[in-house]
Structure formats: structure tokens, C-alpha cells
Design a protein that fits this description.
Order of helices and strands: HHHH
CATH architecture: Up-down Bundle
Structural class: mainly alpha
CATH superfamily: Membrane associated eicosanoid/glutathione metabolism-like domain
Radius of gyration: 17 Å
Distance between the termini: 24 Å
Helix content: over 70%
CATH topology: Four Helix Bundle (Hemerythrin (Met), subunit A)
């Protein structure tokens, strides 16, 4: 079975991962630091923006993919996936532009990510209950 909706979001998040990875590498080359970080807040923010994407995107995509495989309406998966992607983009942008500190985009990105994950979990549970309940 194909997962066209989840596939699009996986591709977009994969591109974001590469962009954030390149941003970290820029600092690693600049500071000649192959492991860890320096005390530069921009370097620290770049590493955490990348790391945070790695921590949240996989489970979000897994839940979307399972929901799509289980027959959850593609429109619901689309809007949940959009929330996940926009949340991850805002979070990364807020981390980098807020130098790892408080930034409205970072906070909004986290909330959108959490809402997307909650929505995906509810869609999965609802689907299982409807089909097997």
C-alpha cells in the first residue's frame, strides 16, 4: 500500500533535516569542533534545533503513516501532517533566530508539534476503536 500523504511530509521533514545538518556542519567547520559544541549560543542553538527535529519528527511520521495505512481519511492526515511540519519549521526558526533562548516562533512550533502528535494519537485510537471496537 502507498502512503502518498505521509510520503510528502517525510520528504519535507527530510529536507529540513538536511538544512539543519548543514547549519550545524557550518559551525563545526568554523570552530574545528567535530564533537560537542563551544560556548557560542548560535552553535548550541543550531545543534539543539537539529536534535529536536530528530527527536520529534520520527514518531510523528510513524503515527501519520500508521494512520494512513489504517485508512484514516487523508484530509485528517494532511492537516495533522501540516501542523507537524509547520510546527517543526517554526521551532527550528525560533531556536536559530532566538539563539536558543525564548522566541515566540519556537514556542508556537512546540505547541503545533504537540497538537499534531496528540491529533495523530487520537486519530489512531479512534480508528482502532471504530474498526475493532
Amino acid at each position: 500500500m502507498l502512503l502518498p500523504v505521509t510520503g510528502v511530509f517525510a520528504a519535507v521533514l527530510g529536507i529540513l533535516m538536511l538544512v539543519l545538518s548543514a547549519y550545524v556542519v557550518k559551525f563545526r567547520v568554523k570552530y574545528k569542533k567535530v564533537m560537542g559544541v563551544t560556548d557560542n549560543p548560535d552553535f548550541q542553538a543550531a545543534v539543539r534545533a537539529h536534535g529536536n527535529l530528530v527527536e520529534y519528527a520520527p514518531i510523528g511520521l510513524i503515527m501519520l503513516g500508521i494512520a494512513e495505512l489504517n485508512g484514516v481519511a487523508s484530509g485528517l492526515i494532511y492537516w495533522t501532517g501540516m501542523s507537524l511540519v509547520v510546527g517543526r519549521l517554526l521551532h527550528a526558526w525560533g531556536m536559530i533566530n532566538g539563539h536558543g533562548g525564548e522566541h515566540k516562533a519556537r514556542a508556537l512550533g512546540m505547541v503545533l508539534t504537540w497538537l499534531a502528535m496528540l491529533a495523530a494519537a487520537i486519530l489512531l485510537l479512534w480508528n482502532v476503536w471504530q474498526v475493532h471496537g
